[in-house]
Amino acid sequence: MPCLSLEDAVLVLCLHAAKHLWTRLIWLADIAETLRSQSQTQAIDYALVFARARGLGIARILGVSFWLVKNVLHADLAKPAEEMIASDSQVPALGSEFAERLARGAAYGFESTEYSRLILKLRERRGDRWRYLWRLVWTPGMGEIAAVRLPEALFPLYRIVRIGRLLRKLY
Description:
single chain, about 170 residues, mainly alpha, 10 helices
């Protein structure tokens, strides 16, 4: 049956957990188990994982995920995973923040300012932060659709509604 390689599974699990800001312990357990379950015949190629993460601009997300697995679940990590944590000075501070929020059971709304602020902190490349901000400003969400009912043909006007709602939040 076709399935993801261990390397791609690690990336996908870390991205999924990060999208939800690591608010459920099961997502950390899934990452830990994937890292632990490698066998002698199928070891994780950490060099490939890190190369793909750097190429995608998600190395910090991987580092925070590994930090949380190590410090929340007290799981043993392979030396390359430890090195990934150490490669970004932001990782321990972000990991601590997310661990504290996980312990409190903090939840986030995808449209909240706090969620957006944390997602921006997870992006290590300036271009990725700008793209995220651009999408944040211009992409209508459920809030805009709930605020104003427009016929489907006028859907592009929701961008104007989006800008109006953002300006109202700021002032």
